[in-house]
Structure to design on (587 residues):
């Protein structure tokens, strides 16, 4: 009986790990591809170990296009992503607090609007938004990519509201008796307790924004303001043959920030989506 | 006692600022501003443009009535893109949810490794939306790509994935299913909420694993299935980046996803009015499908009494 149990356990772990590796194989293949030369990549090999590992893909890739190195592209991505993520956290938590805790006129109405924006496909507003920014003379700047994130993101407002529903209202009441106002309750009670939900928001918004392609595609036309995702795509657009090694090298680098954030906060993510995701 | 009138005014101001109505609006202000500027105004503008022949740089905008919508019905590419998108949604979403549920179920065992495994299985979702992975995917399904190599090793014929109209959508569907991570985590959280007493009671009654899954797990999980179904359906309708990078809509529009076609009409062909009409049509299709899901959910979503 015991032997059977152990065999089952071993088989289970073996299966889960093997299957998991199959799942991330494309990513591993990309990383190994960044050390291979073009001929080897095009030959279509399954192997993850390069025949002759070489680092030159990274230096050729890094040199970028038209004299602009990937340093610039990464700096741009980092700026847009960090500011937009901070904006999302700050504004979404404010709005979530209002909608979940404070009884004001029009609360139901704005809550419905929030749910509606969550379900609204971006394409419906893509064209007029572009035209509005264009007419304001801002279509070639970072403003359209950042400013809307300071107005609360419906998806995260909803997540935070779910989480706040789990923070006992007695805490608010006790704080009120101790002389806290609605404002100080937000800063002293809600915000600190909201931490798991905030961390989840940071991770998800960070990688959504970092990976975002359509936004930069619409709004950034000067190569010096390109983000990493636009720049990586330029390898595939090259008029001559694609330098696959360099493309994979820069692709790999472009995923590092996402991985770092994930590794750093990973515990919170798996638990965070779980607890703040939804109840009932 | 000091000057009573200023104190009176001061308290009035204080009262105003600490009034729930004011506080609520102060905290909700970012959303109210954003909703009006970045959602409402664009929506209304888009609605107006849908009935005009507007294009970038045109001096005057002429209302054309329903002409754009009539043109949609005779636009072959549009009809094809509608079909392709529906096919993509109807195949990828159920497969993704089934797969997510399977993996979530697989990872419910009590083991220290489970958290690590969940992270491992989340990686595709983490990176899947990026340009980097889309480019890798393109290479995996290339003529001499990894996929064909595996098939060759198994003694099968290699396939020209992106050259065959009937097959080109398959790599895109597979890529969407591959990003099952967030649905999986939400399912996993739901599985944890199911009281173990339910299973114990069923075991006493002699239920087997499959019966327990069908009679206990699925009904208890049904509200979460609904949530995932709605969210994934909406995001599948909006799929853009993958098609844009991997296939550019080809071959012969076999992967011309709706969002991609809207983009092309607007920014490649500069038919802004037409593109707006198209996105409104898409919104209607999506609303109908979401509504059907919600209406039908009354029949299959199990809610606990008194909840």
């Amino acid at each position: 009986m015991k032997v059977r149990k152990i065999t089952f356990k071993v088989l289970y772990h073996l299966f889960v790990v093997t299957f998991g590796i199959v799942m991330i194989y494309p990513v591993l293949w990309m990383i190994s591809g960044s050390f291979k030369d073009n001929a080897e990549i095009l030959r279509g090999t399954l192997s993850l170990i390069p025949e002759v590992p070489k680092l030159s893909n990274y230096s050729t890739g890094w040199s970028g296009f038209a004299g602009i190195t990937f340093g610039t592209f990464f700096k741009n991505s980092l700026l847009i992503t960090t500011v937009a993520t901070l904006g999302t956290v700050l504004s979404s938590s404010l709005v979530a607090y209002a909608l979940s805790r404070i009884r004001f006129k029009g609360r139901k109405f704005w809550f419905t609007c929030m749910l509606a924006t969550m379900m609204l496909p971006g394409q419906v507003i893509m064209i007029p938004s572009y035209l509005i920014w264009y007419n304001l003379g801002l279509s070639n700047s970072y403003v359209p990519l950042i400013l809307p994130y300071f107005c609360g993101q419906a998806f995260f407002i909803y997540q935070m509201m779910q989480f706040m529903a789990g923070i006992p209202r007695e805490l608010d009441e006790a704080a009120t008796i101790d002389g806290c106002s609605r404002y100080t309750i937000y800063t002293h009670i809600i915000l600190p307790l909201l931490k798991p939900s905030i961390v989840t928001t940071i991770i998800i918004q960070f990688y959504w924004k970092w990976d975002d392609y359509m936004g930069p595609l619409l709004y950034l036309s000067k190569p010096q303001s390109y983000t990493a995702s636009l720049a990586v795509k330029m390898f595939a657009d090259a008029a001559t043959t694609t330098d696959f090694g360099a493309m994979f090298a820069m692709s790999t680098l472009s995923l590092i920030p996402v991985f770092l954030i994930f590794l750093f906060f990973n515990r919170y993510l798996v638990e965070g989506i779980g607890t703040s995701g939804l109840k009932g | 006692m000091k000057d009573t009138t200023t104190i009176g005014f001061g308290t009035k101001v204080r009262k105003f600022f600490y009034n729930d109505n004011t506080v609520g609006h102060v905290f909700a202000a970012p959303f109210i501003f954003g909703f009006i500027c970045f959602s409402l105004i664009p929506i209304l503008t888009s609605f107006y443009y849908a009935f005009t022949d507007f294009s970038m740089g045109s001096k005057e905008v002429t209302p054309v009535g329903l002409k754009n919508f009539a043109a949609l019905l005779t636009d072959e590419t549009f009809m094809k893109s509608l079909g392709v998108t529906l096919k993509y949604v109807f195949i990828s979403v159920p497969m993704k949810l089934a797969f997510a549920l399977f993996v979530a179920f697989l990872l419910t065992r009590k083991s220290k490794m489970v958290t690590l495994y969940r992270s491992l299985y989340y990686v595709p979702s983490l990176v899947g939306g990026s340009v980097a992975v889309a480019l890798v995917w393109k290479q995996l399904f290339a003529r001499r790509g990894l996929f064909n190599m595996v098939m060759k090793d198994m003694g099968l014929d290699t396939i020209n994935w992106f050259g065959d109209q009937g097959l080109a959508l398959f790599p895109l569907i597979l890529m969407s299913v591959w990003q099952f991570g967030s649905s999986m985590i939400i399912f996993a959280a739901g599985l944890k909420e199911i009281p173990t007493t339910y299973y114990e009671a069923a075991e006493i009654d002699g239920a087997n694993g499959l019966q327990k899954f069908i009679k206990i797990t699925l009904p208890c999980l049904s509200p979460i299935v609904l949530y995932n179904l709605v969210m994934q359906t909406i995001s599948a309708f909006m799929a853009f980046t993958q098609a844009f990078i991997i296939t550019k809509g080809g071959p012969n529009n076999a992967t011309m996803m709706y969002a991609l076609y809207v983009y092309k009409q607007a920014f490649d062909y500069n038919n802004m009015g037409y593109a707006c009409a198209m996105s409104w049509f898409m919104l209607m299709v999506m609303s109908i499908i979401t509504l059907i899901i919600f209406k039908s959910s009354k029949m299959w979503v199990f809610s606990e009494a008194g909840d």
Observations:
- Chain B is about 75% helix and 0% strand.
- The two ends of chain B are 56 Å apart (CA to CA).
